[in-house]
Design brief:
- This protein is an alpha+beta fold and about 160 residues long.
- It has one domain.
- Helix content is about 40%, strand content about 20%.
- The protein has a 3-stranded antiparallel beta sheet with strand order 1-2-3, with helices on one face.
- Strand 1 and strand 2 form a beta hairpin.
- The N and C termini lie far apart (about 105 Å).
- The mean pLDDT is about 85.
Length: about 160
Amino acid sequence: MRIFHRRRGQVTVELMLILPVFILVIFFVLEYGNIAYRTIVLNHASYEFARIAALVGVDKPSGIANRTIMQQKIEHAKRKVFGQEAERLTVHVKVETTGIDPMYKKHRHQDVIVTVVYPMKLAFPGTSYILADEPRKNGIRKLTARARMPVEKAYLSSDQR
């Protein structure tokens, strides 16, 4: 009596049925890792861009924040840090007044809000059917990061009021 029967090709057929699904699962795990990595980099970049804008946005004590100067400094930093990838990044700068100093009416409390958008090309085949933004055939997912920071201003001294 034979316990083991010869099954020719059974392992090959099972492998051909399972292997595509297994490879697709591996691609999804790797793609999620890639998205997570780029999201972390983007969040850090938006924080640093907001920090730059908050520090250079005002040129005189108790002055109004200058969005144009902020945008220029951020563009310079973006090109320096990201190199050729900087062209794909979109940076929006918004200045929002959050309050007025009750003691000195000319001094406005302002926040800078920096939004960075990065259209990321998905790296692995098959993942764009679920992870990409519309239209899915392009295989692009837009990642967005936003940071808010108070604009640094010096107060005028009491004799300059």
